[in-house]
Amino acid sequence: MIIVLKPQCTQDQLQEFSSSLQQQYNVKVNAWFGTQSTVLGLIGDTSVVDIDYISAQDIVESVKRVQEPYKKANRKFHPDNTVVTLPTGQKIGDGSIALMAGPCSVESEAQICKVAESVKASGAQFLRGGAFKPRTSPYAFQGLKAEGLELLKEARKKTGLPIVTEIMRVSHIELFEDVDIIQVGARNMQNFELLKELGRINKPILLKRGLSSTIEELLMSAEYIMAGGNDQVILCERGIRTYETYTRNTLDISAVPILKKLSHLPVIVDPSHASGISWLVEPLAMAAVAAGADGLIIEVHNDPSRALSDGAQSLTPQQFDSVAKRIFEVGEAFGRTH
Amino acid sequence: MIIVLKPQCTQDQLQEFSSSLQQQYNVKVNAWFGTQSTVLGLIGDTSVVDIDYISAQDIVESVKRVQEPYKKANRKFHPDNTVVTLPTGQKIGDGSIALMAGPCSVESEAQICKVAESVKASGAQFLRGGAFKPRTSPYAFQGLKAEGLELLKEARKKTGLPIVTEIMRVSHIELFEDVDIIQVGARNMQNFELLKELGRINKPILLKRGLSSTIEELLMSAEYIMAGGNDQVILCERGIRTYETYTRNTLDISAVPILKKLSHLPVIVDPSHASGISWLVEPLAMAAVAAGADGLIIEVHNDPSRALSDGAQSLTPQQFDSVAKRIFEVGEAFGRTH
Amino acid sequence: MIIVLKPQCTQDQLQEFSSSLQQQYNVKVNAWFGTQSTVLGLIGDTSVVDIDYISAQDIVESVKRVQEPYKKANRKFHPDNTVVTLPTGQKIGDGSIALMAGPCSVESEAQICKVAESVKASGAQFLRGGAFKPRTSPYAFQGLKAEGLELLKEARKKTGLPIVTEIMRVSHIELFEDVDIIQVGARNMQNFELLKELGRINKPILLKRGLSSTIEELLMSAEYIMAGGNDQVILCERGIRTYETYTRNTLDISAVPILKKLSHLPVIVDPSHASGISWLVEPLAMAAVAAGADGLIIEVHNDPSRALSDGAQSLTPQQFDSVAKRIFEVGEAFGRTH
Amino acid sequence: MIIVLKPQCTQDQLQEFSSSLQQQYNVKVNAWFGTQSTVLGLIGDTSVVDIDYISAQDIVESVKRVQEPYKKANRKFHPDNTVVTLPTGQKIGDGSIALMAGPCSVESEAQICKVAESVKASGAQFLRGGAFKPRTSPYAFQGLKAEGLELLKEARKKTGLPIVTEIMRVSHIELFEDVDIIQVGARNMQNFELLKELGRINKPILLKRGLSSTIEELLMSAEYIMAGGNDQVILCERGIRTYETYTRNTLDISAVPILKKLSHLPVIVDPSHASGISWLVEPLAMAAVAAGADGLIIEVHNDPSRALSDGAQSLTPQQFDSVAKRIFEVGEAFGRTH
After folding, report:
1. For chain C, which residues lie within 8 Å of any Cβ of chain B, measuring from their own Cβ?
2. Angstroms from A251 CA to nearest CA on chain C
3. Model confidence at C96: pLDDT above 80
4. Spatial distance between the Cα atoms of D71 and D219, rounded to a whole number of angstroms
5. Could you say which of C137, C190, C311 has the minimum Cβ distance to residue D187?
6. CB under 8 Å to C60, separation ≥6 — which residues?
7. N or C: which end of chain A has fewer CB within 10 A?
8. For residue D37, which residues of chain A lie inside 8 Å, CB to CB?
9. B251 to chain D: which residues are within 8 Å by CB?
10. What is the spatial distance between Cα A10 and Cα C23, in angstroms, rounded to a whole number?
11. Count of B–C CB contacts within 8 Å?
12. Do the Cβ atoms of A171 and B171 come within 8 Å?
């Protein structure tokens, strides 16, 4: 960590500040004297140094991290890829393309089973579906809740597909005990109380990037889960909020190779939420595979125009079948197994 | 609500769609036929119409709301200002300037009591202080938690100032029973489960705008609380995330007059978090008063350079005294009572 | 165009406004009366209707376009792809992948000729290089200017590669007479005086998207050039400005399929400027091909660490050779000719 | 300037790099060796060091400026406020509130003279009006051009108000010889060729912040003009592009005190373009005065609903009279002369 001091900093202040840093954080402090300002360099493990604390000092002009503030999620300390493996054998991050598909909301047993069978036939290895739904309006459909979870399990029994579904509240963790992959939605990416609790369980967590979260913040939220002892985190790029209004969000495709470089965790892409437009799902899925994503999560509904949420971005089973084929074909061109 | 249909929509599809809208939402549907497209107009209460559902229809090109999607927070249906009044008499939204001040984090009894007495002497009518702290890093100080709440109450006992503090988890609501104003932080603005529960209690809620939330989304989150029966919501503009890096966030000063026009709820401004820089607090506080804010929430720490969080944006008690004086002086120029 | 009127609009105001619209724009006006507001629909060619003028009317609540405001760039009126063909035979937009490569700045005859020969050997069909350079600082290297243009022509003579270079000023158009493709940089995308003049010449224009321009604004700038009579416009996505700081800009990969759908013009991608980081060029180039781009423009420098500008994002000739191979290989998986 | 080197950097590379920096930029280089990386500190005038060049080096991990990259616009080197004074005596930056008002576009002699007389009566000291208009659409009204300039001079003759109007093209500089203050619009803030030419003339330049320009970029564009010898630059905050759609742009009110701190140049605010909504002009003007702006530029039209451009954000003369009164009243509360 590099700390630039203000020009008016006195020798005494410098001494006192250096000593306090050494004691508080167990780091060595080197000083370098320029014509206009003095610069301190901290040597040791600075990931625990609170950058807010440093920049609050009267004598500090600015601070710059050299080390990343995340450790467990950091590829530097874990060079090998993390492969998330389910008890039932499915893997994410092993070089294959993990394909998760299903409706935004679970609506009925018939619906979820029909979609599950159809996406399985098209090659999806995971079934996604929302039981608890975060909706901007209190007057919009909020999901079938506990009943939705039961229907997902029913669909799993019929198809063998493990299920991925979103949690919105700490007190629901028990309810999710039999879920295969627990999703944390974009709006809860910095619900730190939820992240801490999910760090205490032994189950894969699919962590979606927040609407205006930086790549580093996403990794810090993964760090929250991992700091609790749960290493099975799957990162998900799902579009960020920008000024462009044609799409619901802007897919930050660069985040895929960057996350793969900075971290050892698997990275998947959600082209449905990134765009909000069903005809964009195919080209964005292609781009995600090309950029190195470990998987995709795609909304599929048997009848999008009657979907109780997010129908505009859902594919029909027929459309999904064609997109899935293209995903696996293109995956081969990138040396991805199937 | 105006719905533009795709050019290829047939007469039969139009009929079927219109009928389904009438049944589902109890609205009347008028059609207007253009050269290139047909447009439907929905008459009635369209705040419950799910815009996602509409835009998912195969035959729909685009949708435009004419009515706002929020009702209880909407000034159209409640022309008079809401005045939030505490049992102890303090008011927010009555034309006075509500001044909330205190440290980012409660750190000790001595600290919080000292700051409380000092900000009271400077004219603040409310004491703010964080007991549970949302921090980007799991390794940063997370607050004194329950003990912090006790210390806040101690400071209230000594000064008579009602306390404002942040909740981060549904299961803590009981713990917060004796808090005067419960704050929902920016990162939890769309933690809908928390909002719903706060709608069931009878206590003022200070709702901060999310880092990348629109004005409409902030009002929809207020609507979540109000839909549950709790009308005492105080809106707080605290800066939004933009590309500009000089400040931590960009204070959206326009949000103040816009929120006051669209809603009857009181609106306060947090210049400390908006800028992240202590010397900007005064000019931004001045701008907030000038733009019509009902109050301010400002970070004050007895020793910012030793603060355990957010010191860089905290004022000393002496600085706050001078800023408070200017706030009330300028308030008078705007006809604000004190 | 759909115009929502304010509730208080009187019958007389409505009549007067309708008549003025009919006269001014030669459109038909239909009115539809709701419970809370009246809505007007304009029938005819509304691309010339000034949306600012409409929304300025006292009685207007809001306006919504149904038709796009661009015509010549609009695929609706020109369903077939535009193929830009140079007199020397190279084509952009014909299904092949157009590969443009070269240094950010032309620095010397030896440098540009060496890079030109090398990128040609790797399969590039166009040579890019900056003679006039837009730099944020007046103290930074501003390019070799006219001399740079001569060196580019020298490199063209040696290699046969047509040259692409940026214009910054109307009065330079004559200087650029012998340039094959004239580039308009992101900072000049809304330099309308320059666009108008480029509309009067008969030469392909590579138009880069502005740092904070919407997709529609990019198409409107293309429309400026086309309205003057020059149909040979190549659109270029090069990243937009967002809050994310890891990359210089955020590549908006969705813009590629969207521009291809809305317009008949060819679309290329600049992964070098989008990311500002050389190791990201390959994955972003892959994503661009996968998303359907008609070509790529990539920075290559014989010695990036001695480049006078933008070295951090430049590839070495060896790196480019490897990236080019991957581009053409992957292109085949997408049925692209070479 | 602080340069962090990559861990794998060898001693020889370090030596070679240090020597080249010393020779090229005439700076001293100090090295500091950490456990994970080596850091270099550059001593001397680093404002001319090309940060792109540095970060392109193979051995460089990252770079951080300690000094600002602008010199002539920097308050550090010119502690006193610059006061722009017109030959006719009007001043900007002397503690008074400079009030510029007039229509978006000059439309006729009657219109501009009527508005000029009216805004003068309300206390404006400058007349603004567009003769050359940058419009997103080539089909929208582009201004009366040279004729518009003549009409502005006519209005100046009648009222004595100096005129402020926008230039869009280098070749028009002669046409603008008799204009009092030349405006550079947001879309041309980085039209560096135009800035360079304006640096060669002796006339105040009103420089508007670009739609997505940082505060530092605005100051660098001022530096372009000042580097040419023209010190009379007036900075203008006019809103930046964000994801919020309620307003046309988001007024970055923090930019006012920041620009005043970083630079000695006067700073004015344009509440009309920042919001795009006439009823927001008053509260935003109040906020601008409260935040320390040296002046305001406000759109006024005798008949906004018939304005040929930007009517939605224009005030009527009556509305402006009331806003101007409030501006001067509030100015007094802030110790501003009139």
Report:
1. 2, 4, 30, 32, 34-37, 39, 41, 43-44, 61-62, 64, 66-67, 241-243, 245
2. 7
3. yes
4. 10
5. C190
6. C3, C4, C5, C6, C54
7. C
8. 66
9. 252-254
10. 75
11. 54
12. yes
CB C88 within 8 A of CB C37: no
Dump pLDDT digits (tens) for B262-287. 999 999 999 999 999 999 999 999 99
Q: B4, C66: Cβ pair inside 8 Å?
A: yes
Give me the amino acid identity at B251.
L
Q: What does A183-220 look like in DSSP terms, one character per residue?
A: EE-GGGTT-HHHHHHHTTS-S-EEEEPPTT--HHHHHH
3-state secondary structure of B73: coil
Closest Cα in chain A to D242: A243
Contact (Cβ atoms closer than 8 angstroms) between residue D18 and residue D25: no
- pLDDT beyond 80 at A311: no
Q: What percent of chain A has pLDDT over 70?
A: 99
| C42 CB-side CA count, 13 A | 29
- What DSSP element (H or E) covers D65? none
Kindly tell me the sign of the dihedral angle through the C-alpha atoms of C117, C122, C128, C130. Answer: negative
Residue D282 has pLDDT above 70, yes or no: yes
Instruction: Return the residue in C68, C253, C284 with the most chain A beta carbons within 10 A, the one to mutate for interface testing.
Output: C253
Helices C281-290 and A255-262, interaxial angle, to 10°?
140
Give the gap in angstroms from C-alpha D75 to the nearest C-alpha of chain B. Answer: 17
Neighbouring C-beta atoms of residue C202, cutoff 10 Å: 8
Determine the average pLDDT of the residues in C53-61: 83
Pseudo-torsion of CA D287, D291, D292, D296, nearest 10°? -30
Tell me how far apart the alpha carbons of residues D99 and D296 are, in angstroms, rounded to a whole number: 5
Residue pairs between chains C and D whose CB atoms are closer than 8 Å: 124
| ipTM for the complex shown | 0.93
Q: Which of D39, D49, D242, D248 to mutate to test the interface with A (most CBs of A within 10 A)?
A: D39
Give just the sign of the alpha carbon dihedral B323, B329, B333, B335.
positive
The minimum CA-CA distance between D244 and chain B, rounded to whole Å, is 6
pLDDT exceeds cutoff 80 at A338: no
> At D128, phi and psi to the nearest 5?
-105, 155
Q: What is the pLDDT of residues D189-232, one digit of tens each?
A: 999 999 999 999 999 999 999 999 999 999 999 999 999 999 99
The 3-state DSSP class for residue B30 equals strand
**pLDDT, average across residues B136-162:** 95
Distance from CA of B56 to the nearest CA of D (A): 22
Partner-chain contact A192 B311, CB within 8 Å: no
Distance in Å, alpha carbon of A317 to nearest chain C alpha carbon: 22
Kindly provide the residue ranges of all beta strands, DSSP E only, lying in chain B, ordered along the sequence. Answer: 2-5, 28-33, 38-43, 60-64, 84-85, 91-92, 98-102, 126-128, 163-167, 181-184, 205-208, 233-237, 267-269, 295-299
Question: How far apart are alpha carbons C2 and C63 in whole angstroms?
Answer: 6
A149 token code pair = 């979870």
- Dist CA A176 CA A199 (whole Å): 14
Cβ neighbours of C243 in A, within 8 Å:
212, 214, 240
Task: Return d(Cα D239, Cα D247) in angstroms, integer.
Answer: 10
The pLDDT value recorded for residue C140 is 86
The more confidently predicted of residues B260 and A308 is B260
Report the 10 Å Cβ neighbour count for C103.
28
User: Distance (Å, rounded) from C-alpha C247 to C-alpha C245?
Assistant: 5
Report how far residue C268's alpha carbon sits from residue C297's, in angstroms, rounded to the nearest whole number.
7
Least confident of B71-75, C116-120, D6-10, D279-283: D6-10
* Residues near D88 by beta carbon (within 8 Å), at least 6 away in sequence: D160, D162, D180
Distance of CA B178 to CAs A197, B129, B149, B162, C216, Å? 26, 14, 9, 10, 53
Beta-carbon separation of D258 and B246 below 8 A: yes
